[in-house]
Specification:
Helix content is 41%, strand content 17%. The protein has 150 residues and is an alpha+beta fold. A two-stranded antiparallel sheet has the order 1-2. It has a two-stranded antiparallel sheet with strand order 3-4.
């Protein structure tokens, strides 16, 4: 009983270790997301628009470029609304448990979420069952972050 009490007191006296949350982002060598494209433009202009490093914001360890100060302000006000899903990796790849690069031309907005795909053929495959593939991607993403994130 004494040993148990000593162990309990020791554990109680040790401060909790900080929890670190892993992240996994598809970034270039400079830490820029979406190959420098403006994440807000996918929603507002329905096309990829190259951002300008003059308008940039940091979010979850990634740097985002924007085509205008207005797009930067929109992102800064609600970054989770505009960030690409699955760290900017191919959504179909994530649905298959893999990290795959993307082509910004193969983007889509599904249920208000920016999804990027490897290419237009893969986008077509994803869209054969968008709800099912998105559900699989959502289920696979935490394990990929845990395994490959930092």
């Amino acid at each position: 009983m004494k040993k148990l009490m000593v162990i309990a007191l020791l554990l109680w006296g040790i401060p909790a270790l900080p929890q670190t949350t892993k992240t996994l982002e598809n970034l270039d060598k400079n830490g820029v997301a979406i190959q420098g494209y403006d994440p807000v433009a996918f929603f507002t202009q329905n096309k990829p628009v190259k951002g300008n490093e003059q308008f940039q914001s940091a979010y979850k360890g990634a740097t985002y470029y924007f085509a205008s100060a207005a797009d930067k302000a929109a992102f800064d006000g609600a970054p989770a609304k505009y960030e690409p899903q699955f760290g900017g990796f191919c959504a179909y790849g994530v649905s298959k448990g893999k990290l795959v690069p993307i082509d910004v031309e193969a983007f889509q907005i599904v249920n208000g979420r920016l999804l990027l795909q490897y290419d237009l053929d893969v986008k077509d495959k994803f869209n054969k069952d968008p709800a099912g593939n998105l559900q699989k991607a959502d289920e696979n993403w935490p394990a990929l972050v845990e395994k490959k994130g930092r």
